[in-house]
Write a structure and sequence with these properties.
- The protein is α/β, with parallel strands linked by helices.
- Strand 2, helix 4 and strand 3 form a beta-alpha-beta unit.
- Helix 5 packs parallel to helix 6 and helix 9 packs antiparallel against helix 10.
- It has a single domain, classed as Vaccinia Virus protein VP39 (Rossmann fold, 3-Layer(aba) Sandwich).
- The protein is about 40% helix and about 20% strand.
- The protein has a 7-stranded mixed beta sheet with strand order 3-2-1-4-5-7-6, with helices on both faces.
- The N terminus is likely disordered.
- The protein is built from 10 helices and 7 strands.
């Protein structure tokens, strides 16, 4: 399928904010947002978790307080969220169980950590893909990946397929006015997905949950508005771009038919 990833470089849908942490909200050590609760549900019991882009560190703090993981690394690339995560860990007296590190992507993981699960949440799918790709030397192939992209799911699924990761579970959930996707994958050798499966999600296509259908109903309206805008545009829109959006609209219409 040519050019599907282009929609993520020039978004044509409202983008969710970067929501790695629930800023401005008092941390409740036993309660996460619905989005992070669903991410937490996919972390294996007893895991050694690396939460990349951990922001306030809410996910590893909650999981360790609940006794659901053995240990965690909270990685952050920026100083402000790095200090926020340090504060969350310190205030919850979890310094012995959670290591907060200032590092770029998977560089937060050290060989001795024994990481068995990696969570990367609240970023664009292409950003998550780039984090995995630039840090793939730090992946041993035994980890479970729990990924929550804000858009850009297709190029992320493409990377997973290209690197032998099978998608074990997918979810679409709506929180506030945004739709979020969760993709859980483990390395399993050669994997092959069709272009449509990469676009919609192989398991999503089978399950067709109400949230999944609602998301794509909204997406179809946005694609149709975009095509109408192209038709009215004073300057000619490149034909390849028009055909790309038209193809996506057709696929979504067939999905919803």
């Amino acid at each position: 399928m040519h050019g599907i990833a282009r929609q993520n470089r020039a978004p044509i849908r409202p983008q969710a904010p970067d929501v790695r942490g629930e800023k401005g909200r008092q941390l409740n050590q036993q309660t996460l947002s619905m989005r992070l609760e669903r991410v937490a549900a996919h972390v294996p019991a007893g895991a050694r978790l690396a939460d990349i882009g951990s922001d306030h560190g809410y996910l590893p703090v909650a999981l360790l307080r609940r006794g659901l993981i053995a240990a965690a690394v909270a990685g952050e690339v920026a100083l402000t969220p790095f200090h926020a995560a340090q504060r969350s860990v310190r205030e919850n007296a979890l310094d012995s169980g959670i290591s907060v590190r200032l590092a770029n992507g998977l560089a937060a993981i050290e060989p001795g950590d024994g990481i068995t699960a990696i969570s990367i949440c609240g970023m664009g799918g292409e950003t998550i893909r780039d984090i995995l790709d630039s840090g793939k030397a730090r992946l041993n192939g035994e980890e479970r990946l729990i990924l929550q992209p804000n858009g850009g799911e297709q190029p992320l699924r493409q990377w997973l397929m290209d690197h032998g990761y099978r998608i074990l579970c997918e979810e679409v959930l709506r929180e506030n006015r945004f739709f979020y996707e969760i993709i859980v994958a483990e390395r399993a050798g050669p994997v092959s997905y069709t272009a449509e499966e990469l676009y919609f999600g192989p398991l999503q296509l089978q399950a067709r949950s109400p949230a999944f259908l609602a998301k794509w109903q909204r997406m179809l309206r946005l694609k149709q508005k975009t095509l109408a805008h192209f038709a009215r545009a004073r300057q000619a829109v490149p034909e390849e771009k028009v055909q790309d959006i038209a193809r996506q609209a057709r696929w979504i219409s067939e999905l919803l038919a």
